[in-house]
């Protein structure tokens, strides 16, 4: 039996899924504390611009004590915690935001993002499903959910999810790449070539697409096309250590030890 090319997918690094963005809060209502909240939010924005995230979090917490019904303040706290890798604290903040504003798709997406980074796959998928119920065209939630299915080894569910995403955005290169890599994981390299070629046409400078396309060609026994695609990947990102590691694994699996050593 032919050895299958390894495909290792990272939730964020390799696939480039969108991370939640900070939306600056405003007062949720008029009250005697308006001036205090306004000043705190202004100071928080200044600290964020200076990338002093711990101090900004403390300022936003003080603002939340004065304006506890403002979901965007809690969402901002969540984004700042997530940006520092404090995903448990981010989850707590996002849950407060979603409780206050349960129809905000971006809050649910951000909650799913942090849960996924904690390895809480089922809870993250549930958050992405809620995101899609609020906004059925939320492409990033669809893709992120597929990545989690793939990470759990449920490639059939992942493929189905990506195919639904492709209906939403047929010209999205990430979606086509994910379809292709999932087909490789399912040991269907011949079927993987077409979506990977579409991804390469849509994003010709995306090195990972050429890497996986090369892997698919090699699995098909086409050394010339496989080598050309892999060379293109390294030309695009010669300093990408993750890509070089993947390349070395591919060559090693194919018994090309000289090429593998060069990649490593």
Write the layout of secondary structure elements.
Blueprint: H1 34-49, H2 53-66, H3 71-83, H4 87-100, H5 105-117, H6 121-134, H7 139-151, H8 155-168, H9 173-185, H10 189-202, H11 207-219, H12 223-236, H13 241-253, H14 257-263
Salient structural properties:
single chain; 264 residues; mainly alpha; Serine Threonine Protein Phosphatase 5, Tetratricopeptide repeat; 14 helices; 70% helix
Describe the structure.
By secondary structure, this protein is an all-alpha fold. It has 14 helices and no strands. It has a domain of 134 residues: Serine Threonine Protein Phosphatase 5, Tetratricopeptide repeat (Alpha Horseshoe), CATH 1.25.40.10. Helix 3 runs antiparallel to helix 4. The two termini are 26 Å apart.
Q: Which quaternary structure do these chains form?
A: single chain
Q: Distance N terminus to C terminus? A: 26 Å
* Low-pLDDT residue intervals, each spanning 5 or more residues: 6-16
Class computed from helices, strands and strand pairing: mainly alpha
- Separate helix tally: 14
Computed CA radius of gyration, to the nearest angstrom: 22 Å
Helix content, binned percent: over 70%
Strand content: under 5%
User: Could you state the order of secondary-structure elements as H and E?
Assistant: HHHHHHHHHHHHHH
CATH topology of the domain at 1-134: Serine Threonine Protein Phosphatase 5, Tetratricopeptide repeat
CATH homologous superfamily annotation of the domain at 1-134: Tetratricopeptide repeat domain
Rounded mean pLDDT is: 86
CATH architecture of the domain at 1-134: Alpha Horseshoe
